[in-house]
Design goal:
By secondary structure, the protein is an alpha+beta fold. The chain folds into 2 domains: 350 residues, FAD/NAD(P)-binding domain, CATH 3.50.50.60; 101 residues, Alpha-Beta Plaits (2-Layer Sandwich). The chain has 14 helices and 21 strands. An 8-stranded mixed sheet has the order 5-4-13-14-15-12-18-21. It has a 6-stranded mixed sheet with strand order 7-2-1-11-20-19, sandwiched between helices. A 3-stranded antiparallel sheet has the order 8-9-10, with helices on one face. A hairpin with a 2-residue loop joins strand 16 and strand 17. Helix 1 runs parallel beside helix 10, helix 4 crosses helix 13 and helix 13 crosses helix 14.
């Protein structure tokens, strides 16, 4: 079969994956007037998965795309965070989230992933470009573009292909196959770029008095931890993180079924999460729940010829700080910020010109992605008290750091995130560049000190393991 749309006189992007990253790309391209087609192997906004955390730098992009208003109506900004030890003592009572919102003028929020997808999908004006239940089976490249073949045998013509299809990316696997013809070691490194050392049950439960809206509870045990957050009225988003007995590497990371989650609940269900309730109480009021391995890593290769990867398909972080999806939106901004001006200068750019955009995107995004993946992994191990150094820091050092300093450190990180340069910024961000530069300079000594402390702890950790 051949696609009815074979335009070769206008630049077209083919997107694999219709989750948060794919739909974000679709909206970004629609706002820029760039032709695209998107292929999603399942349904849009499926009732799978649990929650998504949105941070201020992502909310800024969502404002530019015109979708934040609909999301804001559904959420309660997170404001209060309490950290408990294994016997229920609160060793850190923090309002850092309030401080962050005061500095950045945007909150940190949690919401159902399916609801976020519904909002994104609803804002795509031309839904004829969104193909549900349409899996990418293969692709071929020509001198002028790329041809994607879907599972039903239909061929779709475009100029570039973007793999936004998640950690189990079909596009990444196909790209590695093509690279293996000339470089088998690189292909192997791409296929084995992600490891898993922790497993996670993530779920949505009815909030039957477990914690007030806007509250987050963290509890720290030895080799496991839990988080519960009330980010939407009537619901609790919660996570149980457990260190595995072995570290696995893709493609051999584990796959879990419902029975595996029940085994975990039997073992850890009595563990307290917050005052007066335990894991089993949340499990008992669950609306949906899934158990997955927490893959982490960054691919050594992000593109090949006319194919480029974005989001979890190329960098995957553990979920504790909730930065993974936000990092995908940073990638969307960096990539489209390069592609949009190129197409204005040359409506059908050459492969060499496209490669410059790909490399510009990677140069900006890779260091940030590596930071997020490393930071997220450290927080996962910190909360599960992976060793006595982290346990000591959690109980006796971090609680003494002021909320104001923590907020300033986070704000420096968040405010340095990219935005869509081809769309207007919200009025509050008119002086964003200047404010960001001043913030970075004023907090630089603190960041350096923090980096030294983290590096020293990491070095000591490795020596003692």
């Amino acid at each position: 079969m051949v696609s009815s749309n074979q335009e070769v006189d206008k630049f077209k992007v083919l997107i694999a994956g219709g989750s948060l990253a794919g739909l974000g790309l679709a909206l970004a391209f629609e706002h820029a007037g760039i032709e695209y087609e998107l292929f999603e192997k399942g349904d849009f906004a499926p009732q799978l998965g649990a929650s998504i955390g949105l941070h201020p730098h992502t909310i800024r992009i969502l404002e530019q795309l015109g979708v934040w208003g609909d999301i804001e109506k559904q959420v309660v900004p997170l404001q209060h965070r309490m950290h408990f030890d294994e016997i229920g003592n609160c060793f850190e009572d923090s309002h850092v989230l309030v401080n962050i919102e005061a500095i950045l003028e945007r909150p940190i929020v949690f919401m159902e992933r399916s609801k976020a997808l519904e909002v994104l999908y609803s804002h795509v004006r031309d839904k004829s470009k969104l193909h549900a239940r349409t899996s990418v089976a293969n692709y071929d490249e020509t001198a002028e573009g790329v041809i994607v073949t879907t599972e039903d045998g239909t061929k779709h013509h475009g100029h570039i292909l973007i793999g936004a299809d998640g950690i189990h990316s079909k596009v990444r696997g196909l790209m590695a196959e093509k690279i293996s013809v000339t470089d088998q070691s690189l292909a192997k490194a791409i296929n084995e770029a992600f490891t898993s050392e922790y497993n996670c049950i993530f779920a949505v439960s009815r909030n039957e008095g477990f914690l007030p809206d806007g509250m987050v509870h963290n509890v720290y045990y030895d080799d496991y931890s839990a988080i519960a957050a009330a980010g939407v009225p009537g619901l609790v988003f919660w996570f149980l993180f457990v260190k595995s007995s072995t570290l696995t590497r893709m493609p051999n990371c584990p796959h879990f079924v419902d029975e595996d989650a029940h085994v975990y609940i039997q073992k850890y269900g009595s563990s307290q999460v917050g005052p007066g309730y335990a894991v089993k109480d949340l499990w008992g009021t669950r609306v949906k729940a899934t158990m997955v391995p927490l893959e982490e890593g960054v691919s050594p290769r992000w593109y090949h010829d006319r194919v480029v990867l974005i989001g979890d398909s190329v960098h995957k972080a553990t979920v504790n700080p909730g930065l993974g999806g936000n990092t995908a939106y940073e990638g969307i901004a960096r990539f489209t910020n390069g592609l949009v001006p190129l197409l204005k200068e040359n409506p059908i750019p050459s492969l060499e010109q496209l490669s410059k955009v790909f490399n510009q995107y990677i140069t900006g995004q890779a260091p940030r992605a590596k930071t997020v993946v490393g930071l997220s992994g450290s927080i996962t191990r910190y909360e599960a008290q992976d060793n006595w150094v982290l346990k000591f820091a959690a109980r006796h050092i971090v609680p003494w750091v002021s909320d104001n300093l923590k907020a300033r450190l986070y704000a420096s990180f968040s405010s340095s995130g990219p935005w869509l340069k081809y769309l207007p910024l919200p009025a509050k961000d008119n002086n964003l560049r200047e404010a960001s530069n001043k913030s970075d300079r004023s907090i630089a000594p603190t960041l350096i000190t923090a980096a030294i402390m983290v590096s020293a702890s990491a070095a000591l950790w490795q020596i003692l393991r």
